[in-house]
Amino acid sequence: MKRQSDLYGTIWKIVRRIPKGKVATYGGVARLCGFPRHARLVGYALHNLPHGVDVPWQRVINSQGKISLPRSNGQYQRQKSLLESEGIVFVRDRVPLRLYAWSGKKVRPK
DNA sequence: AACATGACAGGTC
DNA sequence: CGACCTGCCATGT
To answer: Cβ contacts of residue A105 below 8 Å, gap of 6+?
Structure first.
């Protein structure tokens, strides 16, 4: 199989480091991977996540602290349930900042 | 090679 | 806080 970009592997590796009971943002994961501004790639990597691999994809949410999956088709509820079963609390569909694994500090090298 | 897409983020209004 | 626009960059057609 064509070894997809190592980027995905790196991303999955970082996502695996998000402790249970905590969450991280796409941008944050990208930053820790050493690829600032590749937030969309993180989403892409998780979307292409093969079944069976041990990656807590549900712990990654967007910068607004919300789930980035469509409410239709049960996708949204599925992720929410997984997080709640790990102790994550939602306040008006948002995860409190105190539950973030890493501070969402931004790096603006520009 | 050109163009469209996306599980995003940041800034503006 | 919400709606909108712009920047990003790997992927797929």
So the answer is: none
